[in-house]
Amino acid sequence: MSRITERQIEIPQEVDVKVTKEAVVVKGKHGQLSVPLAPGVSTKQVDHTIEVRTKGTTKQARAMTGTHCALIKNMIVGVSQQWEKRLQLEGIGYRAQLQGTTLVMQLGYSHPVNYDAPKGVSLTVPSPTEIVVTGTDRQLVGQVAAEIRGKRPPEPYKGKGVRYVGEYIKRKEVKK
Description:
This protein is an alpha+beta fold. The chain is built from 2 helices and 13 strands; from the N terminus they run E-E-E-E-E-E-H-E-E-E-E-E-E-H-E. The protein has helices at residues 59-80, 138-150, and strands at 9-10, 16-19, 23-28, 31-36, 41-46, 49-54, 83-90, 95-99, 102-106, 113-116, 121-127, 130-135, 161-164. The strands form 4 sheets. A 4-stranded antiparallel beta sheet has the order 11-12-7-13, with helices on one face. A 3-stranded antiparallel beta sheet has the order 1-6-5. It has a 3-stranded antiparallel beta sheet with strand order 2-3-4, covered by helices on one side. The longest helix is centred in the middle third of the chain and has 22 residues, at 59-80. The model has no long low-confidence stretch (mean pLDDT 91).
């Protein structure tokens, strides 16, 4: 059984949390996020902490308690610090540049690959072979990074493609 809800969630000074009957709303210097309350889960704010407890005895309620607690923690970190994913382009001629909010990538195809950043996520290109995805919503930042990586996933023979910084690509021997 999950022990994640036995600890209370600490609220930093710069973050404002509001628990209503329908949702938990978190405001910070980087924006505002909200998550609807899960059925079978009770959420209370006590001073500078949040308590998430299971109301019911069903397996679904126990599972949603840990999930709800993790979502609130991720929102608090997102509005106070922002989430970040770094991608690296590996290959000869592979490069990226930002034109407005559109990411234009040369990935070895005969045409450039364009990616429009959704609202709530910002893309930066510190060097032609590095892309940084930042935002307050952890799920959205991870989804955008995965979609960019999906444009040209790293291949196992030479390792060319778009990869996460620090990702290990298991190499194969040359085809015989």
